[in-house]
Every structure is written in structure tokens, then in C-alpha cells.
């Protein structure tokens, strides 16, 4: 993504509690002045506990986003943004692929099917969750050839292990899809437009 550095005045401290570079790129590209402070959260434990209780997958994404934001908001002032994204296909939850080969297998599984991305974003202030949003996007992967898949994997490499869907929708990854329903930024991992609207209601960014 080509990112400009034109900052639109921001009247409060904004912290992105995420190690995701694309989330930072999205905020910077939108002209927000922010800091990144990401602290570890035991996502696997939260996920496992909620799955064992039969929680809805969307509630798991929300809980993880809140946990990430709270972890930082308890120690830092300002508006702290936490986010989490879950991929769901055939009723099964998927995490980021650990290796390029796992990404290859995942993409082959996704070929010709539709999956959902459940993207949660939570804003915390002074250790309290004050706003939340969930964006569900639906993406239909075309029946691409093995040759295309290898070309794509060679282009993207390790980047595929940093994305829950084993693809990057921006760039050549767009060639994987025949149809999507939902918002570009939400697919990349941050439901930006509802977040900006919230910041405008709080006077953090100009209306
Ligand atoms: N570049 C890119 N990243 C994507 C895309 N779809 C999902 N992702 C990323 O996949 C990751 C989903 O994993 P999460 O657990 O939500 O976040 P993370 O990367 O572990 O970062 P934390 O917020 O620190 O937990 C996020 O970084 C998303 O931005 C995409 O199309 N393009």
C-alpha cells in the first residue's frame, strides 16, 4: 500500500495496540497521528477457553481485540485501539498459517470456496472498553491453477504467514478472488471507517 504521511490534526493520544504492520499502515495512510504499543496477550488461551464454552466465533474476535487493547490501556493514557481477525470456512476457525507451506495448503483448501473474515476492533480508555465494532466480510476464492498459486507464493513469501487468510488482499492477492462482500480496510484487518466515525464523535479528529 502506498502510504502518505499527511497527518490530519489529532486532538488526543491514539495508541495502536497491535504488532500488525498493515494496521499501522492503514492508520497512517488515513492521516492519523498515533503510537504503536503492543503487549503480549495469551490469545490461544482465550480462544481455547471460549471455544470450550461454545462461544460464537465473532465473540472470540471481539474478546481478543478487547484483551489486546485493555492490556495497554491499563498502563497508558489515551485512546487505545485493539483489533483481531478470525477466518471462518466450513464452520471451522483458522489462524495465521505458521509456514509458507501451510499457507500453500490453506490456499488450496480455500480454492473455489467462500470464507468469512470476522474483524473486531475495540477502543479502550483508562482500562475500560468504550467502543467496539465487528465487521464480517465474505470472500469467494476463484478456482485458480496450481501454476498461479506457485507464482503468487513466490511473490509474497513469508508475508503469507502474517495474514489470517494466508493472502494479502492488497496487491496481486486480488487475483485470488472472484467476489468479495465487505469493506477493503476490514479485509486487511482494521474496520477503519467506523473507527474514524467514532473518533469524530469524540472530537479526536475533525468532522
Ligand atoms: N496485509 C494484509 N494483512 C492481512 C490481510 N487479511 C488479514 N491480515 C492480517 O492478518 C492478521 C490477523 O491476525 P491478528 O491476530 O488479528 O493480528 P496480529 O497480526 O497477530 O497482530 P496483533 O494485533 O498484534 O495481534 C492481522 O495482522 C491482519 O492485518 C490482508 O488482506 N492483507
Describe the structure.
- By secondary structure, the chain is an alpha/beta fold.
- The two termini are 25 Å apart.
- Strands 1, 2, 3, 4, 5, 6 and 7 form a seven-stranded mixed sheet that branches.
- The chain is globular and about 50 Å long.
- The chain contains seven helices and seven strands.
- It has one domain (14-202): Maf protein.
- The protein binds guanosine-5'-triphosphate.
- Guanosine-5'-triphosphate is lined by residues 18-20, 22-23, 38, 68, 83-85, 96, 163-165, 167-170, 187-189.
For the termini, the CA-CA separation is 25 Å
> What oligomerization state is this entry in?
single chain
**Poorly predicted runs of 5 or more residues:** none
Q: How large is the radius of gyration?
A: 17 Å
- The total domain count is 1
Ligands: guanosine-5'-triphosphate
Supply the helix-strand structural class: alpha/beta
Strand portion? 15-25%
Give the number of DSSP strands. 7
Function: Nucleoside triphosphate pyrophosphatase. May have a dual role in cell division arrest and in preventing the incorporation of modified nucleotides into cellular nucleic acids.
Organism: Litorimonas taeanensis
GO cellular component, one term: cytoplasm
Pfam family, one: Maf
Amino acid at each position: 500500500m502506498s502510504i502518505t504521511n499527511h497527518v490530519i490534526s489529532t486532538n488526543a493520544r491514539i495508541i495502536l495496540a497491535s504488532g500488525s504492520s498493515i494496521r499501522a499502515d492503514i492508520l497512517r495512510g488515513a492521516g492519523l497521528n498515533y503510537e504503536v504499543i503492543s503487549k503480549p496477550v495469551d490469545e490461544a488461551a482465550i480462544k481455547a477457553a471460549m471455544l470450550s464454552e461454545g462461544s460464537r466465533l465473532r465473540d472470540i474476535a471481539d474478546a481478543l481485540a478487547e484483551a489486546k487493547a485493555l492490556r495497554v490501556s491499563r498502563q497508558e493514557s489515551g485512546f487505545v485501539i485493539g483489533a483481531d481477525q478470525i477466518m471462518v470456512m466450513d464452520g471451522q476457525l483458522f489462524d495465521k498459517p505458521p509456514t509458507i507451506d501451510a499457507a500453500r495448503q490453506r490456499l488450496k483448501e480455500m480454492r473455489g470456496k467462500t470464507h468469512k473474515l470476522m474483524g473486531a476492533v475495540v477502543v479502550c480508555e483508562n482500562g475500560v472498553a468504550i467502543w467496539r465494532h465487528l465487521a464480517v466480510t465474505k470472500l469467494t476464492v476463484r478456482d485458480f491453477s496450481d501454476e498461479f498459486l506457485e507464482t503468487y507464493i513466490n511473490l509474497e513469501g513469508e508475508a503469507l504467514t502474517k495474514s489470517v487468510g494466508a493472502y494479502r488482499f492488497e496487491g496481486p492477492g486480488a487475483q485470488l478472488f472472484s467476489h468479495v462482500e465487505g469493506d477493503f480496510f476490514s479485509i486487511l484487518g482494521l474496520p477503519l471507517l467506523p473507527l474514524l466515525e467514532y473518533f469524530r464523535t469524540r472530537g479526536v479528529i475533525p468532522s
